[in-house]
Amino acid sequence: MHIMEGYLPVGWAIFWWIVALPFMVLGLRSLTRITKANPELKLLLALAGAFTFVLSALKMPSVTGSCAHPTGTGLGAVLFGPLAMSVLGSLVLLFQALLLAHGGLTTLGANAFSMAIAGPIAAYWIYNLTMQLTGKQKIAIFLAAALADLLTYIITSVQLALAFPAPVGGFIASFVKFAGIFAITQIPLAISEGLLTVLVWNWLQSYTPQELEILQLIKPLKSEQLSVNSEQ
């Protein structure tokens, strides 16, 4: 759920902007470095951004009148790292706020922190940890995408609980309420996003192996394999 325009108190809106801005600055430096070193990766960057835009724009009804949606940030985080996704994800949120009235400008810092910063950091860490422990890339992709989705909603629940503590029970009671509302729809959505991300990964392996080699995400293919892929 993107936090809508004007929903957060001014102090919290400013706080999350301050927290998110350093990541965006570092992300711009990361994107600049990536595109200068390997200009051929620009299309893959655009694909990662488009994947995030489409998935996070699919608003689905949740309980008590709220809505839920996938995030799509796990794929880009695995491909380019969490700093790059902090910019791509923030741009997605900006366009959604302006064009779809999904989210808002005052709440962009909070939404960016949960979906474009915390989620991608989790995805990147989970992917690398799973690869170290199991060496199974598709399992790592699935877990990275699914758990990044869930963490995004946990962070959003924390943000809302901090801004609106319950009269009885304070932050904890408010967090349990918000997280419980989101969990009903978000857990199956996270699983679905993980499976979809694996399908997209399979497609990338088949049709863009050279780019994945540059990113050191797959081993170099033999020339015979490359010729077969190019003919498909």
UniProtKB/TrEMBL annotation:
Which segments cross the bilayer? Answer: 6-28, 40-58, 78-101, 108-127, 139-166, 178-204
Q: In which pathway does it act?
A: Cofactor biosynthesis; adenosylcobalamin biosynthesis
Name the membrane topology term. Multi-pass membrane protein
- Write out the entry's keywords from A to Z: Cell membrane, Cobalamin biosynthesis, Cobalt, Cobalt transport, Ion transport, Membrane, Transmembrane, Transmembrane helix, Transport
Domain of life, per lineage:
Bacteria
Localization, per the record, is: Cell membrane
Q: Which InterPro entries match?
A: CbiM, CbiM/NikMN
Q: How does it assemble?
A: Forms an energy-coupling factor (ECF) transporter complex composed of an ATP-binding protein (A component, CbiO), a transmembrane protein (T component, CbiQ) and 2 possible substrate-capture proteins (S components, CbiM and CbiN) of unknown stoichimetry.
> Tell me, what does this protein do in biology?
Part of the energy-coupling factor (ECF) transporter complex CbiMNOQ involved in cobalt import.
Spell out the family assignment given in the record's similarity comment. Answer: Belongs to the CbiM family.
Query: What name has this protein been given in UniProt?
Result: Cobalt transport protein CbiM
UniProt lists the gene as cbiM
